[in-house]
Amino acid sequence: MKSFLDLAKSRYSCRSYSEQVVPKDTIMNVLEAARIAPSATNAQPWRFVILTQPEVRHEVASCYSGEWLKSAPVIIVACGNHSESWRRADGKDHCDIDLAIGIDHITLAAAEHGLGTCWICKFDAMRCAEMLKLPKGVAPIALIPLGVPAEKNNYSERHLVRKSMDEIVTWEGYNF
Ligand SMILES: Cc1cc2nc3c(=O)[nH]c(=O)nc-3n(C[C@H](O)[C@H](O)[C@H](O)COP(=O)(O)O)c2cc1C
After folding, report:
1. Is the pTM of this model over 0.70?
2. Is the pLDDT of residue 110 over 90?
3. Ligand 1-lining residues (CB < 6 angstroms)
4. DSSP states along 27-54
5. To test the ligand 1 pocket, which listed residue (121, 141, 153) has its Cβ within 8 A of the most ligand atoms?
6. If you ran DSSP here, which 8-state letter would residue 151 be given?
7. pLDDT of 76-109, one tens digit each?
């Protein structure tokens, strides 16, 4: 069994998929990882819209500029219900934080199955919400393609670029 760190390191943004169908029980297993994720006040404000049928999948994919998204056999539209999420006393809405946790569980669970994913936030969220007829207060936070990677090691160069520990960690105070 892979250690958690090995699993986390095996995840990368996959931007090319094979046509291979992802079985429904595998999709459900990946979604289970999101279902059990933590959220502020346990509000669980996530809603996941699973698109497998080519017509709607391609329509939603057109909200994003990258044509490659159409190659994914599954698109998970991760939505946040802002009327359910916790707001701190200063007004900060924790919906996006909760969604990020759930989505990251999805990407890691998918990696465990040898499946590729990619976070997509640079899409036309308003158009996507209209297409899916999302109710008021529910926003699409990210599009997550899911599928068998088209070829091995198809990660971008950016995947290998990470700041050093010294650049991101200080001890006993903020000393950058
Ligand atoms: C919140 C978030 C939004 C992102 N949005 C996009 C996007 O719109 N399009 C895209 O191709 N990649 C997107 N990415 C992927 C990042 O570019 C990628 O995670 C980063 O370059 C590191 O590469 P890696 O995921 O392969 O390790 C996004 C990632 C995150 C976490």
Report:
1. yes
2. yes
3. 12-13, 66, 118-122, 155-156, 158-159
4. HHHHHHHHHT---GGG---EEEEEE-SH
5. 121
6. S
7. 999 999 999 999 999 999 999 999 999 999 999 9
